[in-house]
Amino acid sequence: MKTELPPLSNCVLFFVAVISMVYLYNSIAQRQLIKKQRKAERPKSSFGFLILWNQISLISFFFITYILGWDAPSVGLKFEILPVFSLIIELICYCTFVLIVNKILKLLRVNQIVEDDAYLVSVRLIPRQKLQRILFLIAVCILNPMTEELIFRGVLVHQLGIYINNYYLTIILGLFVTLGNHIYQGRLHIITHIIFYIFTVTLLYSDVGLIGSIGFHLAGDIYPFMWLKYQVNNYKQRRREERRAKYVSN
Question: By C-alpha distance, which of 237, 26, 245, 28 is closest to 119?
Fold first, then answer.
């Protein structure tokens, strides 16, 4: 049985298409800026507020357009499984994801390079000021998983799939959009984002639906910040060892 779309679903789809292009442009611009920088530079002092304002604006748009532009069935929201069981499934999936990614990166012998690159990207994104850092973490770790999954999985993949009656095409389109949104992180992170995307889409079309994708994404955004202090110490220690080895060789 085909899901009936809300009357203004095409307006929401157009908005998501525009947002996708804006995200792609910003990602490319950020990557070019990173290449020009000789060392990792902190963002502007108001960066945390700007990111939070962006997330609040997106949430406001989807709150206003609910029912007329999108609804639970059109974006894959399901409430068939109790939240506690859904949470367990999401945590198991994320642990599996981490194990798979780490194994692949080790086999390719790029795990250390990817870890260093991820740390340097984090330094460029996280504000130094305490208030701005708190606003940034709220936006990125709590609000971003909800908006990003709703936009790029719920609407772009699920709702567009219903609209054009071709889920396979929208899944492929969603993958390219996801990779485009994370160009700023560099080529070595493509593997991570492909596997991440596979998990989120699998959860989207499972019994946990979009809620499962959001929970998985929440874990994906919170986990790196939990290990950030370890990454900082590990990175600095490796840099000291490299300088010491270079000094001894000279």
Answer: 237
